[in-house]
Amino acid sequence: MKRKMKIEDFGRPARQLVTLEPSDLLPLPPPYDEPRPLKQLSEEQRERYEASLDGFVGIGITKPASAKEEEEFVRKFLSGLKKLLSKENNWTFLQPLVHSLDYCVKCQLCNDSCPAYVASGKQEIYRPTFRPEILRRIINKYLKKESGILRKLTASDIDLNFTLLARLAELAYRCSLCRRCAQVCPLGIDNALISREIRKLFSQEMGIAVRELHEQGTVQQLKVGSSTGITPKALANIIAFMEDDIEEKMGRRIEIPVDKEGADMLLLHNAGEFLAWPENPEAFAILLDAAGISWTLSSEIAGYDAVNYGIWYDDVQAARVAIHHAEAARRLKVKKICVGECGHSHKAMLVIADRILTGDLNIPRESALPLLADLVCNGKIKLDPKRNDFPVTLHDPCNMVRLMGIVEPQRKIVRAICPQFREMEPHGVENYCCGGGSGFAIMQSMNFPDWRNNVSARMKMKQILEAFGDVPDPAQKKYVCAPCSNCKGLLRDLIEYHGAWEKSGIFYGGLVELIVNAMTDLKKPFIEWEWH
Amino acid sequence: MNIFLVVLTYFGYIFIMAMYTTKAVKFLRLPRHLRWELYPVMHEERYRYGGSYFEEIDWITRSRRKGRLRSIYFLLKEYFTMGEYLKRHITYWLVLYPWHIGFILIIGFHICTFFAAVAMLLGLPVSGESSFVAGRLFYYVLLVMGVVSFISGVIGSVGILVKRLSDDDLRPYATPQNYITYLFCLAVFMSGLYAWYFVDPTFSEYREFWMGLIAWRPITVAPGAALHIILFDVFLIYLPFTRSMHYITRIFAFFLIRWDDEPNLRGSGLERELIKQFGQQVTWSAPHIGSGKTWSELVKK
């Protein structure tokens, strides 16, 4: 059952509603055009978890043991749905949600803007209007309690059961919330928001959320300090390591300021950088030191990890994390908070938290990118673009670009220091999501990474390959610049999955690494072209 | 019959205005939400490439100019061209456009008829031979608006019906109510076309009817014209039960959601509004929420 699946089928019993065939997926250019089998779940996993949507598991909802449990599941969902549509419980997004639920005319204009829908070979369930339609029908029947005739007229006959709801929850994690669909809607309908609100209902009412986002994400961050598990003590060791590393690379030691009270700015990094890409915070330290800027890191709980996974699934958790960030800044008496290369943290701190933080917690917050552009373009650091004389393309993180309008600073930088810079098409506010948005990059549940690498990230892979289409030789090293930790995490997995480092010499990294690589007072290149 | 037409017409207009106003007020009174803008934001100076004030260092200390006229122009242009549909789905645009032009012009036709009737009551003759420019202008504008509206509406209604039925992407999401609406529209536009062609080629009878409405002086109209008046009035009563209000809510969605980049400054009215909202009780039930507290209490957990 593929494209022809009907909306009415969504709650019907089936081992698997949709099966993705590798040959149906969006074709990639050679040598990446050979269809690869998709990882299947074991029978044991199927037995235990609800996996009847598309055979992939992002959340891992366990099946109810009895009819009573199933009834309770449905009851809780409906209770959450009422709250989702109430002013008191959902002041945060009620107006946008109501608008998108009530005024979509289902013209399907948004369909082709969705990278997952297109890359999947246009599977019906991934259509941007599909999940909102399910939710709309549930509301019409169970909340508005439309009569039988009216239900027929509005095609709202739908029967709730565990399978339907578990599929809906899982389906909310097949949309990366990139909001490309919303961008093209002439009526201002936002189907991505509806995916987010479904996730929120499951989390805030039923306690059902992706483990990597909730237990290992926001809960761990608020408890130990970081979603990576880095404690303040571990951070001190990492900072010492970074200082040693900088000394080795530069020939001189730079002290990385931590908890420096009264500094001009608190720099917030995604803590994933400290573990996976320490060269990124190192490059920041080198640049800020060279520019003579007064800055500091924080070692407080959550103060050294900019991530805020709450913005993808839970308003309360999002607010709690944002408040922790602001409190760390307040205690250090900094003049402003500056967010490093992390897209969703940008949006969390500058946009979402803007109407959460009030009074003395409302500390000025801004992106690091304009500052970096100022350093590069106004000659505040000596740079030699010849040091970056290799093909470079720029990935636009959705959160920074389409959702915040930070488009040009990063371009000014790469245009100035990368002679072989080329854009992906489309780019800027019309970019495609990397495929790791809304938590996908860190979701490792069962076979979910296979879905990510083959479906949500497929369009990005195609774009990257096309951007470097004129230089296919793997001996020519190429650089995908992604000023975002989650996008980098996705790119790491994606490039590895497709073997693009070996086959095409495609590498990835951040923006500051390129800037430092071009610094004239560095004896050897900062970018080491070592796959890790 | 004459009284019935007068009462039905008054009721139709009052009903639709009351319903739309109620719906609009209800929507506008929903709480101030978290920011959820989407770029390009048309009032931004950097709108051409979708840039925002976040592209500046210390943006909070700089003045922000908003090009509100540009935003209005953008929306109006989209109303009259439906450019996104033209760009992305031309076969759909080919039926959607005449359908909507039919609506826009039929509304314009009725507004103009009202003013023409008022003008006539004040002594201005409205006809092709009127000695007054305004009289001739009313006459020709009404004629063009009415005729183009009916023809365009008929083409659009048939077209959209066929398109919805034949397009694999559209059909599964169309409801019986959609088809009823298309057929109803077709009946309204067809009856208008019939009334114009066979009964009232200069719309003079229709203007007389409106004069009678305004002056509380029921006027006899021919059955063909009466049928169109009844259908149009019932259509006005029916519209609030469809998604037709998207024509208005679209403005709200753009200004209050998609382009709402108003920062929350310390001590501002927005901040006061938010603090008030933080005092509301939250009853979400998941264990990690800590239900029963106010928003501000539970987020400081």
SSE map:
The complex is a heterodimer of chains A (532) and B (301).
Chain A: H1 43-48, H2 67-84, H3 94-103, H4 115-119, H5 130-143, H6 148-153, H7 162-171, H8 180-184, H9 191-206, H10 214-224, H11 232-250, E1 265-268, H12 272-276, H13 279-291, E2 295-296, H14 315-332, E3 336-339, H15 343-352, E4 365-367, H16 368-377, E5 392-394, H17 408-417, E6 421-422, H18 448-456, H19 458-467, E7 478-481, H20 485-498, H21 500-504, E8 506-509, H22 511-517
Parallel strand pairs in A: 1-2, 1-3, 3-4, 5-6, 5-7, 7-8
Helix pairs in contact in A: 2-9, 3-9, 10-14, 11-13, 13-22, 16-17
Chain B: H1 2-28, H2 68-81, H3 83-88, H4 90-121, H5 133-166, H6 176-199, H7 204-214, H8 223-238, H9 246-258, H10 269-278, H11 295-299
Task: Explain this structure.
The complex is a heterodimer of chains A (532) and B (301). By secondary structure, chain A is mainly alpha-helical. Chain A is 43% helix and 5% strand. In chain A, the strands form 2 sheets. Chain A has a 4-stranded parallel sheet with strand order 2-1-3-4. Chain A has a 4-stranded parallel sheet with strand order 6-5-7-8, with helices on both faces. The mean pLDDT of chain A is 96. Chain B is elongated. Chain B has 301 residues and is an all-alpha fold. Chain B has helices at residues 2-28, 68-81, 83-88, 90-121, 133-166, 176-199, 204-214, 223-238, 246-258, 269-278, 295-299. The N and C termini of chain B lie far apart (69 Å). Chains A and B meet through helix 2, helix 3, helix 8, helix 9 and helix 14 of A and helix 3, helix 6, helix 9, helix 10 and helix 11 of B.
Brief rundown of the structure:
Chain A has 532 residues and is mostly helical.
Q: Which pair of chains has the greatest number of interface residues, and how are they split between the two chains?
A: A-B, 87 and 81 residues
**Mean pLDDT over the full residue set of chain B:** 95
Helix count of chain B?
11
**Globular, elongated, flat, extended or rod-shaped: what is the shape of chain A?**
globular
Query: How would you characterize the largest beta sheet of chain B?
Result: none
Instruction: Tell me the series of helices and strands of chain B, N- to C-terminal.
Output: HHHHHHHHHHH
Q: What is the number of helical segments of chain A per DSSP (H or I, 4+ residues)?
A: 22
Oligomeric category? heterodimer
Q: Structural class of the secondary structure composition of chain B?
A: mainly alpha
Low-confidence stretches of chain B: none
Helix content, binned percent of chain A: 40-55%
Head-to-tail CA distance between termini of chain A: 40 Å
